[in-house]
Design goal:
Blueprint lengths: L1 H6 L2 E4 L5 H6 L4 E4 L2 H37 L2 H4 L15 H4 L5 H11 L5 E6 L2 E6 L2 H10 L17 H4 L9 H9 L5 H24 L7 H18 L12 H9 L4 H11 L2 H7 L6 H21 L6 H10 L10 H31 L1 H18 L4 H6 L1 H13 L6 E4 L4 E3 L4 E3 L4 E4 L1 H5 L18 H6 L18 H9 L1
Parallel strand pairs: 4-8
Antiparallel strand pairs: 1-2, 3-4, 5-8, 6-7
Helix pairs in contact: 10-11, 10-23, 11-17, 12-15, 13-14, 15-17, 17-18, 17-20, 18-20
The chain binds protoporphyrin IX containing FE.
Protoporphyrin IX containing FE (HEM) binds next to helix 17 and helix 23.
Length: 498
């Protein structure tokens, strides 16, 4: 009221006591000011407003600077070489602006720090350690696995109840029990039983290609359809027929899972860089409609099988057996069961289809590779009378070709782990604090001329028996490594080779 009085051109007449008491006792008296006096008081008030605003901005900037200094000095304080962070965005402004992808960026950094066994970066505001040295990578993935058992992201149950129960996402100790439960799915005996299902899809692929005659075919799309058919048959017991039916629901949903629209980009950004975004917007890990479709479908099939007592030797049968066994060490029911089928479909679909596409591309431009591979396959069919599990396992050159495809076109370009307990690695004088994210840039290792001379050359002979022995251990990690490696990789070999 006093200030209001002043600006409206009134004086406050003193009557003794403090302003407060005078004001409260209503002992103030407003007296009309002259024009000059009024403009003087207005100026005083304006200046005060400006000073207050500047002070406020200054305090804010100071606090932000303190935060930035404390947060982004993490690696320098530890005397670990690191990338200079950009304001509050850490090292990822280019990725946020879609100028570079995360894998490209990590591969560039891998090359830049060629003399360092490890270096630091900032994932938004979180420090992350990037490991370059294969022996150090082995140390983290295997020797010190107990301190780095989880992937460094959390899927919020309220944001995505299906993905959060998957083997890929769960954290230790639940992960350990679940992995032990699911590992028997991929024994050679079980995979052998799935081979006829895969061969059915191979026959549809052959018929489809035969019917194309001399037409130009988009092989990436064809491989996507083949992978959809194989994985839907092995994991859901459904023949998706996507090679025959253009609008196959499975194919549509499979594509949706990996749709790269704005929401999916924000979700990937959030899960990797800024978990707070996920919490606030409740973003699902993969496309919600597609995961819900696959989840519901799984339950329909499971109930049908249980009521008709039919079996097909696929993943659904194995999951029903696991659900019904008397193992009390883990509660394996409800969404925990269906989530595994959905996650096997999503983990295996795109990776398998892209690997086969790249293999076909390399064979098209390397006729010698194609000829040698064809000869090996014909020899195996002559020996066994057909494509058989044993025959596929014996095909050395086929294995070499796919190893080289997975080196040159690494499907999972980096691994990520979370340090759950302070860890000191004396050989490297490296102390990883609890809570630090650890990144292993596989694509960088696979393209390092130190391990793979002339890395852009497609050369399956790098993986011949003789040359394989000369490879630096832990420089080749297409399926990750250690107890948390890809659970499906034995199955992958059979599916893609067939
Ligand atoms: C070419 C095909 C594939 C590639 C390159 C690939 C690669 C990978 C990689 C790099 C990881 C992370 C490993 C780590 O963190 O150390 C992984 C994990 C995983 N993959 Fe695969 N994968 C492929 C196919 C499949 C298939 C077909 C399935 C399903 C049957 C599958 C299921 C999984 C699961 C469930 C995990 C998480 C394992 C865990 O956390 O215990 N993958 N995969």
């Amino acid at each position: 009221k006093v200030v209001e009085g002043l600006t409206k051109g009134y004086f406050v007449e003193e009557r003794g006591g403090s302003y407060r008491s005078r004001f409260r006792d209503e002992k103030i008296k407003l007296v009309q000011m002259s024009k000059m006096e009024a403009s003087f008081y207005k100026e005083v008030k304006d200046n005060w407003d400006l000073t207050r605003t500047l002070l406020f901005v200054f305090i804010l900037l100071f606090l932000a600077y303190c935060y930035w200094k404390r947060n982004f000095s993490y690696w320098t304080n530890k005397h670990i070489p690191c990338e200079k962070p950009f304001l509050f965005l850490g090292n990822f402004p280019d990725m946020i602006a879609s100028k570079q992808t995360v894998p490209q960026y990590l591969a560039n950094l891998y090359a830049k720090y060629q003399n360092e066994p490890y270096f630091g970066i900032y994932l938004f505001n979180r420090p992350a350690l990037v490991l370059r040295d294969p022996k150090l990578i082995k140390n983290v993935l295997i020797k010190n696995f107990a301190k780095f058992p989880n992937r460094a992201f959390t899927i919020d149950k309220s944001a995505d109840v299906i993905a959060c129960s998957s083997l890929f996402a769960v954290k230790n100790p639940e992960w350990k029990a679940l992995r032990a439960k699911l590992t028997p799915i991929f024994t050679s005996g079980k995979l052998k039983m799935m081979l006829p299902l895969i061969k059915e899809c191979c026959t549809s692929l052959k018929n489809y290609l035969d019917a194309q005659n001399d037409k130009v075919v988009d092989m990436k799309e064809v491989c996507g359809k083949y992978a959809t058919d194989v994985i839907s048959s092995c994991t859901f017991g459904v023949n998706a027929c996507s090679l025959v039916n253009e609008d196959s629901e499975f194919r549509v949903m499979g594509k949706r899972l990996f749709n790269s629209n704005l929401i999916r980009k924000v979700s990937a950004f959030g899960y990797f860089l800024a978990p707070a975004v996920i919490k606030v917007f409740k973003l699902s890990f993969l496309d919600r409609e597609a995961t819900v479709y696959l989840n519901d479908l799984f339950w329909r099939i499971l109930h049908e099988r249980e009521s008709n007592m039919t079996r097909r030797n696929d993943l659904v049968d194995i999951l029903i057996d696991l659900k019904n066994d008397n193992d009390k060490s883990i509660s394996f029911d409800g969404v925990t069961v269906s989530s595994q089928a959905v996650s096997f479909f999503s983990a295996g679909h795109e990776t398998t289809s892209s690997t086969i596409s790249f293999a076909l591309y390399e064979m098209a431009i390397n006729q010698d590779v194609q000829d040698r591979l064809r000869d090996e396959i014909h020899a195996s069919v002559r020996k066994y009378g057909d494509i058989t599990y044993e025959g596929v396992k014996e095909m050395r050159y086929l294995n070499m070709v796919f190893c080289e495809v997975l080196r040159k076109y690494t499907q999972a370009p980096f691994l990520i782990r979370e340090c759950v307990e302070d860890c000191f690695i004396p050989e490297y004088n490296l102390r990883a604090d609890k809570g630090t994210d650890v990144i292993i840039p596989i694509a960088g290792l696979h393209a390092d001329p130190k391990y793979y001379p002339d890395p852009q050359k497609f050369d399956p002979l790098r993986f011949s028996d003789v040359n394989r022995e000369k490879l630096t251990p832990y420089s080749y990690l297409p399926f990750g490594s250690g107890p948390r490696n890809c659970i499906g990789f034995q199955g992958v070999k059979i599916g893609r080779h067939s």
